[in-house]
From TrEMBL:
It comes from Streptomyces glaucosporus. Gene3D superfamilies: 3.40.50.2300, Winged helix-like DNA-binding domain superfamily/Winged helix DNA-binding domain. Keywords: DNA-binding, Phosphoprotein, Transcription, Transcription regulation. The lineage of its organism: Bacteria, Bacillati, Actinomycetota, Actinomycetes, Kitasatosporales. Residues 4-125 form the Response regulatory domain. Residues 145-215 form the HTH luxR-type domain. Transmembrane segments: none annotated. This is Response regulator transcription factor. The modification 4-aspartylphosphate is found at D54. Signal peptide: none annotated. InterPro entries: CheY-like_superfamily (IPR011006), NreC/VraR/RcsB-like_REC (IPR058245), Sig_transdc_resp-reg_C-effctor (IPR016032), Sig_transdc_resp-reg_receiver (IPR001789), Tscrpt_reg_LuxR_C (IPR000792), WalR-like (IPR039420), WH-like_DNA-bd_sf (IPR036388). It holds the Pfam family Response_reg.
Length: 215
């Protein structure tokens, strides 16, 4: 089974290595790009069988790869996506599994790329619609499954961490380079996911920060 792949990785060395591995196993890398904006453009142009992308990359050097993947899945719900990360971030995993019902989704640590056969097999399985999670990611998910923040997206966790520092919404918006309306929406989502409803007791914003600090 030969796949058409669009690849996004900001490290030129890592990117070339991934291209070499995939090509050696008979797959065609239609585009290999270094930032999230170029990833979206490449998918639009090439209509690949699967996207393989790093989570953290330009232009903001945050979770741009994940956000690009989420946008692509919203536009193309059946597009398989395999994400790579240097570190385990559980909120990424939770958000990832929400994309398109969790089918055709993968999350691997970059160390796994060293096991070439395992990595290529994961690419093929994700392209076929399977869900492939790094064993270490699964272990940490099970170990920390009671974390009250597990349902928050990476961006929502960023907003909550700034709330914990005492930042007002306008300051959070400036720090994250988004609109204040976007911050208000994120906070609304945070409060909802933490079960802090308007009719609850106490100041919801304070309670959300306390949940963050406990976690």
């Amino acid at each position: 089974m030969s796949l058409n792949v669009v690849l996004a990785e900001d490290s030129a060395l890592m990117r070339d290595g991934l291209v070499g591995v995939l090509t050696r196993f008979g797959h065609r890398v239609r585009a290999a790009v270094g930032d999230a904006d170029a990833l979206v453009d490449a998918v639009r142009e090439h209509g690949p069988d699967i996207v393989v992308t790093d989570i953290r990359m330009p232009p903001d050097n945050g979770d741009d790869g994940l956000r690009a993947a989420a946008a692509l899945r919203r536009a193309h719900p059946t597009l398989p996506v395999l994400l790579l990360s240097q570190y385990i971030e559980r909120s990424y995993t939770e958000h990832l599994l929400d994309l398109g019902g969790g089918s055709g989704i993968g999350y691997l640590l970059k160390d796994r790329v060293g096991d070439v056969a395992w990595f290529v097999d994961a690419v093929v399985r994700v392209a076929a619609g399977a869900t492939v999670m790094d064993p270490e990611v699964v272990r940490q998910l099970l170990h920390r499954r009671h974390d009250p923040l597990r349902r928050l997206t990476p961006r929502e966790r960023e907003v909550l961490s700034l709330m914990a520092e005492g930042r007002a919404n306008a300051a959070i918006a400036r720090d994250l380079h988004v609109t204040e309306a976007a911050v208000n929406k994120h906070i609304g989502n945070i409060l909802q996911k933490l079960g802090l409803h308007p009719d609850g007791e106490g100041h919801r914003r304070v309670l959300a920060v306390l949940a963050y600090l406990r976690a």
